[in-house]
Write a structure and sequence with these properties.
- By secondary structure, the protein is of the alpha/beta class.
- It has one domain: Rossmann fold (3-Layer(aba) Sandwich), CATH 3.40.50.
- It has 13 helices and 11 strands.
- Strands 5-6-7-11-10 form a 5-stranded parallel β-sheet, with helices on both faces. A two-stranded antiparallel ribbon has the order 1-2.
- Strand 10, helix 10 (310-325) and strand 11 (331-336) form a beta-alpha-beta unit.
Length: 453
């Protein structure tokens, strides 16, 4: 009985596509099918209520892990929860899947953003250890391909709302590394002028970025509202946000996706399935095989990609964004990868089995993409790659200097910028005047509600 139980729980960490083959998924394309399937019954009638669904899965490997929860005692005799993992942890690293849309220059640009993302977070970690960061720091180590490639698929008119591990998407959209560093250091020149020490900032004027919200899932209905507002102004736009595998279980996530689905809004939701919701493994927080399956319940397309493969992430996001702009509604993209650090810098992630870290370290998105560009596609020579890395390091060092030399905010500045006072800014339509039907009919009082027995 124990073996059967473990097998059922292991399903959340990989597996094959819904139809059991990658070739079929490739034929289906990037959209889930929800068309009715008609079949003949024994009496010659037709059954029109049967439906078949396909969740395309573009991964070139399907890791199958089994995580078991154990208890152990430390030297003081105190019991602690431990996790043990089993599976094929020595499987070879798969190749990068060629993109259907990226050319040489675009692929190298994404690689550079990923480098900036990695180097910036290394600098942030050093600043924290030097006591220059106020509060904590959240890292996206191992998720750079997901953040950067997805944001790269957006146009300037599209909107996005990052989460705490999507700092690479800020770089793609034009924020400087020093903006993120100063924000964590609560400096006067930070986006929030030192009033916040984490990622709660945005730019709705130039970069179409909605500020992250700490209550997980709340960004989804907000972004659906942005898409609805644009539609009322005569535009179909793509709005993209992220949610983790843990946050995906919140009630507001369901409400936000359902609203976008019913209203056919251009929401692109990337579920960062990174195996751990803080210290809870994924197989202990949901029962379905893959989180992309939940798209079926909303009646929207779902797709699975390797979150460490920048080409897969870009292609899936590109197609979802194009659907959104055509007014064809939302898409759910599940990007599977591993959170390579704890929940935040204060979390040593000692609960994660070392063998899992070792497995995913071999699938480092930066190392894989570098090998793809240099050795497989030969789009970058070794010399050009080293020059690119050196240039990024120079940029990050200059940005770090800017952040460190920025002054701390003055005490008297704390009272400003809290409330919107004295007409500090004007709220106006971004794309045009909302369209309203004109009419001359006067308001008529309705009858009392009729309660049917």
């Amino acid at each position: 009985m124990g073996n059967n139980k473990r097998k059922s729980k292991a399903s959340s960490n990989g597996r094959n596509s819904r139809n059991g083959s990658r070739s079929t998924a490739a034929r289906v394309g990037a959209h889930a099918s929800s068309a009715p399937e008609r079949s003949s019954s024994k009496n010659g009638g037709s059954q029109q209520n049967l439906r078949t669904y396909n969740i395309p899965d573009y991964r070139l490997e399907h890791p199958q892990f089994e995580i078991r929860q154990l208890t152990g005692k430390d030297k003081q005799g105190q019991e602690h929860v431990l996790y043990e993992v089993s599976g094929d942890l020595d499987a070879p690293v798969p190749p990068i899947r060629d993109s259907k849309y990226l050319d040489q220059q675009q692929a190298i640009e994404i690689y550079r953003y990923m480098l900036l993302n990695r180097k910036m977070e290394i600098a942030l970690e050093n600043l924290y250890k030097q006591g220059k960061v106020v509060g904590g720091v959240y890292f996206g180590l191992g998720q750079e391909a997901c953040s950067c490639a997805s944001a790269y698929a957006l146009d300037k008119d599209d909107w996005f709302a990052p989460m705490i591990r999507n700092q690479g998407s800020l770089l793609v959209r034009g924020f400087r590394a020093s903006d993120t560093m100063m924000q964590y250091m609560a400096k006067a020149d930070s986006p929030t002028k030192g009033r916040d020490g984490t990622s709660h900032f945005g730019d709705i004027e130039k970069r179409n970025m909605v500020s992250p919200i700490s209550m997980l899932g709340d960004l989804i209905p907000v972004m659906s509202g942005v898409a609805l507002g644009a539609r009322l102004q005569g535009r179909n736009i793509a709005v993209m946000t992220y949610i983790g595998d843990g946050g995906q279980s919140t009630g507001v996530t369901y409400e936000g996706i359902n609203f976008a689905a019913v209203q056919n809004l251009g929401l692109v939701l990337i579920v960062e399935s990174n195996l751990w919701a803080y210290s809870t493994p994924s197989n202990m927080q949901y029962r379905c095989k893959d989180l992309a399956e939940r798209a079926i319940g909303y009646g929207i397309p779902g797709v699975i990609v390797d979150g460490t493969d920048a080409c897969q992430v870009y292609d899936a996001t590109h197609e979802a964004v194009e659907r959104a702009r055509r007014g064809q509604g939302p898409t759910l993209i599940e990007a599977k990868m591993m959170r390579m650090k704890g929940h935040a810098i204060h979390d040593a992630a000692s609960y994660v089995p070392k063998s899992m870290f070792d497995f995913w370290k071999k699938r480092d998105p930066l190392t894989r993409f570098e090998n793809y560009l240099v050795k497989e596609k030969k789009w970058l020579s070794q010399k050009d790659n080293q020059a690119l890395i050196a240039e990024v390091e120079i940029v990050i060092e200059a940005e770090r200097e800017v952040a460190v030399n920025s002054p701390m905010p003055t005490p008297e500045s704390a009272e400003g910028g809290v409330f919107c006072e004295n007409g500090c800014h004007e709220i106006k339509p971004k794309y045009g005047i909302p369209k309203v039907k004109k009419g001359t009919a006067a308001y008529k009082e309705t009858e009392a509600a009729v309660h049917l027995k």
